[in-house]
Each structure stands twice: as C-alpha cells, then as structure tokens.
Specification:
8-stranded mixed beta sheet, Rossmann fold, alpha/beta, single chain, 20% strand
Length: 289
C-alpha cells in the first residue's frame, strides 16, 4: 500500500469517526419522548438540552406550545426559540398536544394535554435534569393561551392524573396569546360559558406567575386593549407583567421568518428570564432597536 492510499484510508476513517461523533452528540442533546397516551394516540415532546450540560446538575426548563387556534399547528413553529434558549442554558421542550383537525379534539383537551406535559416534566425531573421549581411555559396565539392557562386555570386535568404534582409553571413568556375567551373574545363560540373556568383573563389570582407578553398593534385576533387589561389585573393581584407592544405589527410578527422581530422579542424574553434568575449574562442574540 503506497502513501497516497494510506492517506486516503486515514481520511476516510476520520470522516466516518466525525460523522459518528456528530450523530451521537445530536442524539444526546435532542431527545423525543412520549409524555402521554390517550387510547392509541401517543403524544410526544422534543427536548433540547444545553450544549454544555453537566450530568450532575439540574437546569431550568422552558416548555413551548405552538399556535393554530387549537385546530392545527406543529412544534416546528417555536423550534428556533427552543434552540436559542437551550444554547443559553435552559432545557427546552417542544410539546405536541391534541388539536381539532388531527385528533378531533376540543380546546379543553388541548389544555388538558398542556397541563399533563408540565406534570410529566416534574415527575421525570431526575432523569431529565430539570429543576422542578424553575419551569417556564411559553406559547404563541392559542398556544399562548395554553401556556397562560397552565399558570391560571385550576380545571381540565387529565383523568387519573396525580393532582398532587403541580402543572403550574413559575414564569410565562407569551406571544400574542389568546388570553380572553369570554364573550367577544377569542374562541368563545367553541368554549361557550365554560370561559369562566377556561379563560386566563377571567382567572388571574394572587400568585399568578410573572409574565412577559408580546403583541403587535395591528393584531386583528388579539386586541391591544385585551393585553393592557390583562396587565392591569396582574398588577392588581401583585404579579409582574411586562407588556411589550410593537407598533404596526400583525399576528405572528415574532415568528422566525420575521428576523428583526424574532430577534427583538427573543432578546426581551432573555432579559426577562435573566431578571428572574433563570439565565445569566447578556443575551447572545443580535438585535436592533
């Protein structure tokens, strides 16, 4: 075997080894788990671990619920958010849940699943390396409702679930959330008079989790007045509510495809979580005023 052939073989082995290492790393840092079974349906969550995670340490967790009117949607919507915050040192979770078009589900079942997902994180906190008193819920639109509802709503728990395990997060990061489900609010035609137990705006009480809320002034789904009133009620019960209003922006303005506002909202969410002690240092995302 001449020198050239030897070098080619060495190069080939290096490439194979590198591919193996990278594949193993990906499997270690992103994991998919089944968190709940409903009849024959398995609901999954994708977990993104911090790249510098240590096996003997526990970390804050941030669970994301996608938008789609409790009708549709996929976990990919908030994947860029999960990747960013996992790189910053938070274990991030993208949770699937039942929706109307895929599962013939009601909004109440969507909320049941959202609460089940947080309970799963707490029950399995040891193997997942999660600090149980540092769980953040985040969501967009109807997913924002689910996140807010885990922090405010006491009903709609799954049958036979251990209610001694709390489904309430310690903080909320909400992107144009559907927080008012009462008459004239989002989804009232589907939830009816159940809104009294289902609508976050109508169930804010003392002890509501500290919240940051993002909305555009041109959002035709969630009126600015709704989130302003939400903040008033949060202030009244003594809970922090940071309201970030973006002039001229529409529903979904924060999504990854809108780079400027994705960066700005993630930057503000980072500062909010840092102020609560879940992150350290300055945000690593680039933003312009």
């Amino acid at each position: 075997m001449n020198l050239l052939e030897i070098m080619k073989r060495i190069l080939f082995l290096i490439i194979v080894f590198s591919f193996y290492v990278l594949s193993s790393f990906a499997q270690q840092t992103v994991t998919q788990l089944v968190y709940k079974k409903v009849d024959t349906l398995s609901l999954t969550m994708d977990i993104y671990y911090p790249p510098t995670m240590k096996s003997d340490k526990k970390y804050p967790a941030m669970i994301f619920y996608y938008g789609g009117g409790w009708n549709t949607g996929t976990i990919s919507q908030l994947e860029p958010h999960a990747k960013y915050f996992s790189e910053r040192g938070i274990i991030c979770v993208l949770a699937d849940y039942r929706v109307r078009l895929r599962h013939n589900a009601t909004p109440f079942e969507s909320l049941e699943d959202a609460k089940s997902a947080i309970r799963y994180l707490r029950v399995n906190s040891e193997k997942l390396h999660i600090e149980t008193n540092q769980i953040i819920a985040s969501g967009a639109s109807a997913g924002g409702h689910l996140a807010a509802a885990t922090g405010t709503i006491s009903k709609y728990d799954a049958p036979n679930e251990d209610l001694s395990i709390s489904s309430k997060p310690q903080a909320l990061v909400l992107f144009n959330p559907a927080i008012d489900n009462g008459p004239g609010g989002y989804g009232f035609e589907r939830v009816g008079m159940e809104y009294k137990d289902f609508s976050p705006l109508h169930n804010i009480q003392i002890g509501a989790p500290p919240t940051i809320l993002f909305l555009g002034t041109k959002d035709i789904v969630i009126p600015v007045e709704t989130v302003q009133y939400y903040k008033i009620v949060m202030d009244k019960v003594g809970s922090r509510c940071d309201l970030k209003i973006y002039e001229g922006q529409k529903h979904g303005f924060f999504n990854y495809i809108h780079t400027q506002y994705f960066n700005q909202t993630v930057f503000e969410a980072d500062k909010f979580l840092t102020s609560l002690g879940y992150l350290k240092g300055e945000p690593t995302i680039f933003t312009k005023p």
